């Protein structure tokens, strides 16, 4: 059921029996809200977000395809987030599930897109909400007669109580490309990542499970992923935040981006092949990771 009135439309609202909801714009197939059963918003949305195409919406979960950031020649984060998607009537080989808690969306390359990115593709995403969990299954099918490579990220904007009070577990000892230092490769030394300034890193060959521990909110957000080996951590901090028109000057305090991504080694698919990824976000109590 597509809602067509209001400035955040057309959009779909997903429900699940314990009361959590997810809102998805058809523009960019972008999740713009995920509320738990206590109606608490899990994702960050800038109150200066611009809800007018072709401007991307600052918050929720933008889909960065066929290019992450400016790791290539296309517009920042590629064009998929700036396109109107349609309902996917043929989600095969995934089973067709017509329910209030699932949405299947599709973006096909257009003749116009081919001018900037000369490859015919079908990009699909299945979005499923269940108790305490939000699952995204992105798929890219090559419907061209030549192979192509792409980079991709699910840019998860999480709402946090105070970014200087949260920590991230699961990325320790890994190598990362530091976007602030000419994308050179470094190794993470800390045994849990905390935040006291701008961070913009692509962690490489990450484990399937990464957690954001927000003690103040008694909330741990766990990101599990498959098919996307990298993870991105981004917070603009104060100086950059002021330079981003659709982000409040203080917003950096209550947001943290932790993305599932395929960046360092672009994904290559041949004609008729389909790549599939999976990202599962779940909310657990804060004792989850401190082993209590
Ligand atoms: O994290 C990668 C990055 O390109 C940052 O350098 C910053 O530009 C961020 O993404 C935001 O990009 P956006 O296009 O959403 O403003």
Automatic annotation (TrEMBL):
GO terms of biological process kind: carbohydrate metabolic process
GO cellular component: cytoplasm
Top-level enzyme category: isomerase
Coiled coil start-end: none
SUPFAM superfamilies: Galactose mutarotase-like
Molecular function terms from GO: carbohydrate binding; glucose-6-phosphate 1-epimerase activity
Keywords tagged on the record: Isomerase
Transmembrane regions listed in the UniProt entry: none
Residues that bind substrate: 58, 76, 81
EC number(s) on file: 5.1.3.15
Keyword Ligase: no
Reaction(s) catalysed by this chain's protein: alpha-D-glucose 6-phosphate = beta-D-glucose 6-phosphate
Family under the similarity heading: Belongs to the glucose-6-phosphate 1-epimerase family.
Name of the protein in question: glucose-6-phosphate 1-epimerase
The organism of origin for this protein: Artemisia annua (Sweet wormwood)
């Amino acid at each position: 059921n597509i809602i067509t009135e209001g400035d955040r439309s057309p959009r779909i609202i997903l429900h699940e029996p314990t009361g959590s909801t997810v809102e998805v714009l058809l523009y960019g197939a972008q999740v713009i809200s995920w509320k738990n059963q206590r109606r608490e918003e899990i994702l960050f949305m800038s109150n200066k977000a611009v809800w007018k195409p072709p401007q991307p919406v600052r918050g929720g979960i933008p889909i960065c395809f066929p290019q992450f950031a400016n790791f290539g020649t296309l517009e920042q984060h590629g064009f998929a987030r700036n396109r109107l998607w349609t309902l996917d009537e043929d989600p095969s080989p995934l089973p067709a599930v017509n329910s209030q808690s699932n949405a299947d969306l599709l973006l096909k390359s257009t003749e116009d897109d081919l001018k900037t990115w000369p490859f015919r593709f079908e990009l699909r995403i299945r979005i499923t909400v269940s108790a305490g969990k939000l699952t995204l299954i992105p798929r890219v099918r090559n419907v061209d007669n030549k192979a192509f490579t792409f980079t991709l990220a699910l840019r998860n904007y999480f709402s946090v109580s105070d970014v200087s009070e949260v920590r991230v577990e699961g990325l320790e000892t890994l190598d990362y490309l530091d976007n602030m230092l000419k994308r050179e490769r470094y190794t993470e030394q800390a045994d849990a990542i905390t935040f006291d300034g701008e961070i913009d890193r692509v962690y490489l060959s990450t484990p399937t499970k990464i957690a954001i521990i927000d003690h103040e909110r008694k909330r741990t957000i766990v990101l599990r992923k498959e098919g996307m080996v990298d993870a991105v951590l981004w917070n603009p901090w104060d100086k950059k935040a002021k330079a981003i028109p659709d982000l409040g000057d203080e917003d950096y305090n209550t947001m943290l981006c932790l993305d599932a991504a395929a960046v360092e080694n672009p994904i290559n698919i041949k004609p008729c092949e389909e790549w599939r990824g999976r990202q599962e976000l779940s909310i657990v109590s804060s004792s989850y990771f401190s082993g209590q």
